[in-house]
Amino acid sequence: MKGMKVIKFSEGPALDMGTERIPKLIASFALPAVLGMLAGAVYNIVDRIFVGHAVGPVGLAAISTSFPTMLLMFACTLLISVGGASRVSILRGAEKHHKAEQALAHAVAMLSLVGAVGIAMAFTGIDTLLFYSGASEAVLPVARAYLRIILIGGPFALMGGGLNSFIRACGSPRYAMGTQMLGALSNVALDALFILKMGMGVEGAALGTVVAQSLATAMGLAYFFMKESPLRIRLYYILRPKFSVVKRICSVGSAPFIVELSFVAYMAVMNQMIKLYGGDIALSALGIFFSLDSMIFLPALAIGEAAQPIVGYNYGAGKPGRVIHTLKYALKLATGFYVVSFLVAEIFTSLFVRMFTSDPELIAVTVPGIRMSYLGIVFFALPVVTNAALQGLGKAKESLLLSLLRQVFFMFLPVFFLPRFLGLNGVWLSFPVGDICGGLLACLFLIRIIRWLRTPEARFAE
User: Fold this and answer.
1) Alpha-carbon gap, residue 260 to 247, rounded angstroms
2) What is the DSSP letter of 299?
3) Neighbours of 85 (CB within 10 A)
4) CA–CA separation, 379 and 331 (whole Å)
């Protein structure tokens, strides 16, 4: 079995995903992925810090009500990038180079198409989207100005985020981190220019994000045209689309897509409920919460992303024992990360909130809400690793089943019923209820996966 070709210009010593020690592989993939995710978190955090101080609570509420539509676009990115990257990893492990390039080219074409749809959304029905996301009359004009610019620049966000998954699947996690770092640092500088220097408010925050994402996309595309890249984006495959390839990509990516799609609906309901029980000030508090969430909660998802290509490669190479080792080690890392995140969220909450606002009323609503929301965060390590396992193994049906059960029973039901008895606190407490129950469900799936991997049936079949 040939070792995996690795980019030499940025990756250091070559790592063979079929023979290298699992801890070293996970560390090599996870550390850049976590740092890249933290860099990506800067997009959310910086926008809200600048907007919170320059525009005030109404600006934070505007970003909160724009969030569900932004998540809708992100869901489409996951559909394509997760499904496509899983196929690329498995096909490269099975040494089917041309089919891997075919999957890559189809994914790029699909991302471009979704980006075009996003531009159309910017000019049709944007007020309706914001209304159902909880925008009040006071918030709507500000939210409209922000979201329209974000949607027009949507193709860059979609392409940049999607390409990173394929860069990691090609064995270049540091390069993927570099594209995210470029975008994050550019976003900080551009927000300072557009918001503070030029006084553009929320429009400046949106424009800074779009330009920064454009730079990250350019760097991501450049990777696949370098001679050291193991894969190329071939125009030949783009111009000759095959439905069977699209179907395989979408089947694997359907689970994270539906998860994110249901989270869009969940966020719309969450915005409506939090506005009902706490008003616009609570909506602003939710905006701060999701900014911190991108730093405290989301980076552990990068551990799952890092494990996925290793799982896919070794599954394709017929090495289920290494797949099991990868899952166990990834679970330890994700759990450790969330233990630290829990302590940080509970101890330093007030300090973090004051980064975004000096409004005493907003601080009084946000601090206890955040502390309640993170009570069950440690349990989410299980869904992170289980989803990575199912996606890396190409098990679309099982991944979809887990996602639907978790979303319907452990996210929607708590946010609908808890506020009826606990008011605004019930909205915040719906997060830990979902994390704990969803984690226990994922544990059952993970045990089943490991048992299956120990059977003779656990062999790759295209």
Assistant:
1) 19
2) G
3) 31
4) 11
CA angle 255, 442, 250 (to 5 degrees): 10
Burial 327-363 (b: 16+ CB within 10 A, else e): bebbbebbbebbeebbeebeeebeebbeebbebeebb
- Which CA distances in Å does 274 have to 114, 271, 424? 31, 5, 6
Residue 280: how many CB atoms within 10 A of its CB?
A: 20
Q: What is the mean pLDDT of each run of 10 residues along the chain (462 residues)?
A: 38 54 74 71 74 81 83 84 83 81 87 86 85 82 89 83 83 81 86 86 87 90 85 81 84 76 81 87 86 78 81 79 87 91 90 87 92 92 89 77 80 88 91 91 91 75 49
Q: What is the DSSP letter of 7?
A: -
Give CA torsion, residues 379, 385, 386, 390, to 10 deg. 160
Label residue 171 left, alpha or beta by phi (over 0 means left) and psi (-120 to 50 means alpha): left
Paired tokens of 18: 């079929």
Instruction: Go through 414-430 and write b for each residue having 16 or more CB atoms within 10 A of its CB, e for each that does not.
Output: bbeebbeeeebbbbbbb
DSSP-derived secondary structure letter, 158? H
Q: Are 133 and 268 in contact (CB under 8 A)?
A: yes
Q: Which among 389, 372, 387 has a CA at the least distance from the CA of 425?
A: 372
State the Cα–Cα distance between residues 444 and 398, nearest whole angstrom: 12
Q: Please say whether the dihedral angle defined by the alpha carbons of residues 188, 193, 198 and 200, taken in this order, is positive or negative.
A: negative
Helical residues (DSSP H) of 224-319, grouped into ranges: 235-239, 243-296, 301-316
Check if the beta carbon of residue 195 is closer than 8 Å to that of residue 156: no
Q: Token match 């860069």: residue?
A: 167
338 Cα distance to chain centroid: 16
The pLDDT, as a whole number, for residue 295 is 77
CA-to-CA distance for 204 and 191, rounded, in angstroms?
6
Going by C-beta distance under 8 Å and a sequence separation of 6 or more, which residues neighbour residue 236? 105
Annotate 341-397 with DSSP letters as a single string: HHHHHHHSHHHHHHHH---HHHHHHHHHHHHHHTTTGGGGHHHHHHHHHHHHTT-HH
